[in-house]
Amino acid sequence: GYEWAEEAVNELYNRGIAYGITDDLFAPEKEITRAEFITLLMRGFELIGNDAVCNFDDVPDGAWYYPAVAMAYSMGVVSGYSDNIFGANDNVSRQDMAAMIVRLMNQLGMRVPEVREYEGFADSDQISEYAADAVIELYKGGIINGVGEDCFDPQGTANRASAARMLYETLRIQWDKQAE
Predict the structure, then answer these.
(1) Predicted confidence band at 22 (pLDDT cuts at 50, 70, 90)?
(2) According to the model, what pLDDT value does residue 49 have?
(3) With left for phi above 0 and alpha for psi between -120 and 50, is residue 18 left, alpha or beta?
């Protein structure tokens, strides 16, 4: 049931960006946490370093996701729920993924090329203000689509398959530029 994500998962795996939950199991249906997604995003853009710091209580120094969260925080890609809580183990929402991707792209001076018009989702009024422009930009660029009956489901959680597909579509912009 996840054929639409197969190319993305395989390419991210082959490039050392995404891994399975075991050596031979990807678990596309499993929900993805904020720590997992930001690690994928920062790893995909090769931005994980050990110089950045953050002071979130739920992102302890030495945690596998600390370097990615700290770098993303230092770049303004993520913020926490508060000054000291990131929500590392909370499932990431679809709108948060969009906001993180666009913030990172903006920091890198990247723009999403428009490939279609945005006609709005049936649940556009449920997209938080901080994520609305990011959702529109990524939709116009063909990076995200709706779910179900013309909805985006902004507060809905993402699974590993949809996160991989969104990241793959984003990274293809960079890969295409590098190939030119």
Answers:
(1) confident
(2) 79
(3) beta
Query: In this predicted model, what pLDDT tens digit does every residue of 93-117 receive, in sequence order?
Result: 999 999 999 999 999 999 999 999 9
If you count them, how many residues does the chain have? 180
Cα radius of gyration (the chain)? 16
CB-neighbour burial class of residue 24 (10 A; exposed 0-12, middle 13-18, buried 19+):
exposed
Q: Say yes or no to pLDDT of 43 above 80.
A: yes
Split at pLDDT 50, 70, 90, the class of 177 is confident
In contact, 170 and 105? CB cutoff 8 Å: yes
Which token pair is 165?
Answer: 């597909």
- Cβ-based neighbour number of residue 29 at 10 Å: 11
User: What is d(CA 101, CA 75) in angstroms, rounded to the nearest whole number?
Assistant: 12
**Confidence class of residue 17 from pLDDT cuts 50, 70 and 90?**
very high
Contacts of 142 by beta carbon, 8 Å cutoff, 6+ apart: 115, 116, 169
Distance CA 174, CA 79 (A): 24
Other C-beta atoms closer than 10 Å to the C-beta of 149 total 8
Residues of 106-138 as b/e, b for ≥16 C-beta within 10 angstroms?
eeeebebeeeeeeeebebbeebeeebbebbbbb
Q: Running DSSP on this structure, what letter comes out for residue 124? A: G
